[in-house]
Amino acid sequence: MKIAMIGTGYVGLVSGACFADFGHHVVCVDKDADKIAALRNGEIPIYEPGLDELVEANVEAGRLQFTEDLAGPVSTADAVFIAVGTPSRRGDGHADLSYVYAAAREIAAALKDFTVVVTKSTVPVGTGDEVERLIREANPAANVVVASNPEFLREGAAIRDFKFPDRIVVGTNDERARKVLGDIYRPLSLNQAPIMYTARRTAEMIKYAANAFLATKITFINEIADLSEKVGADVQEVARGIGLDNRIGTKFLHAGPGFGGSCFPKDTRALLKIALDHDIQLRIVDAVLAVNENRKRAMARKVAAALGGQLRGKTVAVLGLTFKPDTDDMREAPSIPLVTGLLDMGAQVRAFDPAGMDQARPELPEIEYCADAYACARDADALVIVTEWVQFRALDLDRLKREMRQPVMIDLRNIYRRDDMEARGFIYESVGRPKISP
Q1: Which of 33, 128, 289, 377 could form an S-S bond across to 403 if both were Cys, CB 3.0 to 4.6 Å?
Q2: Distance of alpha carbon 136 from its chain centroid, rounded?
Q3: What is d(CA 437, CA 421) in angstroms, rounded to the nearest whole number?
Q4: 11 and 68 share a domain?
C-alpha cells in the first residue's frame, strides 16, 4: 500500500516508520524544511528508543521517504494520514485544529483516484465531519472517504505499542475504507491485534475517553497515597491489592508527582470543553485536572518539609526532568512547577536528566544543569527523584551520600526502600508510604 503521512512529529514519524516496516511505501510530509533535511540525514528530532534504527533501516530499504511536497505523495496514495499537532488553544483550552484543517485543504487539492483520508491526530468529536466538508468544498469531484484512526502510543514504548497494540480503532462506515485500512494493518494479524470498526464520531470519542480514564486512575492513586501517608498504610501495596482485581488492573496505579506530557493534560482539558459546548458537566474529569495541578505544586512543599520547612539558601538536586522516562518530552512535566516552587522558596536548584536537558533549558533557564547524577548531588542539601529513569534505580548510595551536604532524599517515584535508605544513614521521604520502617 502507498501511504502519505502528513506531519513528522511524534505520532507521524513513529507511525510512518512502523507502517514502512510492515512493508508499505510511506512518504512523510512536513512543511519544516530544516526538519525534513535533518530526517534525510538520519537525524531524528525526538528521543524515542529504537526509532533511529527503524527509520534508518526503512530508508535504506526504500520504503520510507521524507519530503516538503504534499501534492506528489497524496496524489498517488491509497491512504493519507493526518498526524499534525492539536495543541491546547490559548485562552480557552480547546484543541487547536488549525493545522488539521489546513492539511485537509491541501490534501483536497492533490487528490486524484480513490483515497482514504485518515485523522490520526487526537481531535474532538465531529472533527472528521469538518475535515470531510472542507475536502468536498475544496474539491467537489474528490473520490474520498474520511476515517478516524486514533493513536494509543506511549512515549518511550511507542514502537512496541504500534506493533503489539491492545486494539486498533477504525472509525468509518464505508466498506471501501474498511478494506484499505484492514489491508494496511493486516501485518498485525499475526499478533492477533483486534481491529474495532465503529462510527467515525465514536472512534474520536474513544481516544478522549481512554486518556481521561487513565488520567483518572493516576489521580485516584495519588489521592490514596496522600491518605496512606497519614494513616500509616503503604500505597504500593494498596495499589497491588486493588490492581490484582482484573476489573481494575495494575497499570497506571503508580503514585507520584502527578501526570504530565503531551496527551493527558491537553486531552482532558479538551474533553471538558467539548462537554461544556454540549451543556454536559464532566465533574470527575474536572476534578482530575484540578487535583493534578494542585499536586504538582504541592511537591515543592514536600521537599521543603523534608528540610524543616526552610529552603532559602539551600541547594536542591533534581534527578529527572522529563514527564516520564525514555523520552525528551518536557510538555507539562511535573518537574516544571516543582522546580519553580523550589526557586520561589529561595532554593538553588541543579538538575540532571539523561535525555531532556536541552528541552528543559528554555522552560527552566534559572537552574544549573549537571553532567550526571553525582555531579548533581554534590554539596546538595536534598536530592529529589522526579522521573524514574532506569539510570536512577541503582545509584551508588554510599557515593551519593558522600557527595551531598546533607543526606536527604525525597523519592517522588518510590524507587527505593525506606529501610535500605535509613540503613545507609539517609533521611528518606517517599510518596504514600509509612514514615517509619516496618
Answers
A1: 377
A2: 33
A3: 10
A4: yes
In degrees and rounded to multiples of 5, residue 357 shows phi and psi of -70, -35
Residue 312 DSSP one-character state = T
Helices (H), ranges, 350-431: 357-363, 373-377, 397-403, 418-423
Q: How far is CA 320 from the centre of its chain?
A: 16
Q: Which of 18, 28, 263, 376 is catalytic?
A: 263
Domain contains 216 = no
The enclosing H or E element of 115 equals: strand 115-119
Task: Name which of 333, 309, 336, 339 is nearest 408 in CA terms.
Answer: 309
The answer to whether 125 and 205 have CB atoms below 8 angstroms apart is yes
Across residues 33-58, what is the average pLDDT? 95
Q: Which residue has the cell 476534578?
A: 287
**pLDDT tens digits, 316-369:** 999 999 999 999 999 999 999 999 999 999 999 999 999 999 999 999 999 999
Residue 370: how many other CB atoms lie within 10 Å: 19
Asked if residue 171 lies in contact with residue 178, where contact means CB atoms within 8 angstroms, the answer is no
- CA atoms within 13 Å, Cβ hemisphere of 79: 27
- According to DSSP, the residues that pair with 146 across neighbouring strands are 117
Residue 75 lies in a domain: yes
d(CA 17, CA 310) in angstroms, rounded, equals 50
Active site annotation includes 263: yes
- Each residue's pLDDT tens digit, 266-297: 999 999 999 999 999 999 999 999 999 999 98
209 domain-assigned: no
Instruction: Tell me the per-residue pLDDT of 109-119, one tens digit each, with 9 for 90 and over.
Output: 999 999 999 99
